[in-house]
Design goal:
alpha/beta; potassium ion transmembrane transporter activity; single chain; 2 domains; Alpha-Beta Plaits; disordered C terminus
């Protein structure tokens, strides 16, 4: 798979390194000569250019990319790169970094973004995930599919403890994708029984999140948060 990453800062280089280890072809673009440090990611291709310019993206051959990652530290740049990648080059998958959570509402299909990754929000969600039992935590938003990756740790008071996965009437537009039990990662099987302390990861539509939370966790057993807001 060919991946172009716009933004060769610490985030862009880290993502590039992971992708290269997994056997993908990676091109890093940055307009700052200081950011173009070939020795830091020697197996990647490098391009010193402004990723917001069509001529730069032509040189990067975006039409041959399967994925573009807009990973700069500037939300305006990431939005422009995403829009150009999707509308001018038809890139199948565009992932964009959100630096300021207040701008998250802009990172959607209208701007060419398939997946928006908000680092501050993700860090906050991971903290909540680590300390919350019985509360639904939103980890990631998939803009184009109008779905979220959410997590809930099953409390021991849940009525579904001991129930088999295949016997649960899950809400529509909801899929249980993983059960984390202690140090094990389980692919859900219809015969698996849910256990207290299980970390359940779902892909769910935003409209079904409250219903999913009510199904998994008795309301009286949750923390004093009142109405669940955006995490």
């Amino acid at each position: 798979m060919r991946v172009v990453i716009a933004g060769a800062g610490a985030v862009g280089r880290s993502v590039a390194g992971e992708l290269l280890e997994n056997g993908h072809e990676v091109l890093l673009i940055d307009k700052s000569p200081q950011a173009v440090s070939v020795d830091r990611v020697p197996d990647a291709e490098w391009l010193l250019a402004d990723a917001c310019e069509i001529t730069s993206l032509d040189e990067a051959a975006l039409e041959r990319c399967q994925v573009v990652i807009a990973a700069s530290g500037d939300d305006k740049v990431n939005l422009v790169v995403s829009l150009l990648a999707k509308t001018e080059y038809g890139v199948p998958r565009v992932v964009a970094r959100v630096n300021n959570p207040k701008n998250e509402w802009l990172f959607n299909e209208a701007w060419g973004v398939d997946v928006a990754v908000s680092t501050p929000r993700l860090m906050s969600a991971l903290v909540e995930e680590a300390v919350s039992v019985g509360d639904l935590v939103r980890l990631m938003r998939f803009s184009q599919g109008e779905a979220n990756l959410v997590e809930l740790t099953l409390p021991d008071t849940a009525t579904l403890v001991g129930t088999r996965v295949g016997e649960v009437a899950w809400p529509q537009n909801t899929a249980l994708v993983t059960i984390i039990r202690g140090t094990r990662v389980l692919i859900p099987d219809p015969d698996d029984a849910l256990a207290a302390g299980d970390e359940l990861l779902f892909v769910a539509s935003p409209e079904q999140e409250r219903q999913l939370e009510d199904l998994l966790s008795p309301r009286e057993g949750r923390g004093e948060r009142g109405e669940r807001g955006e995490r």
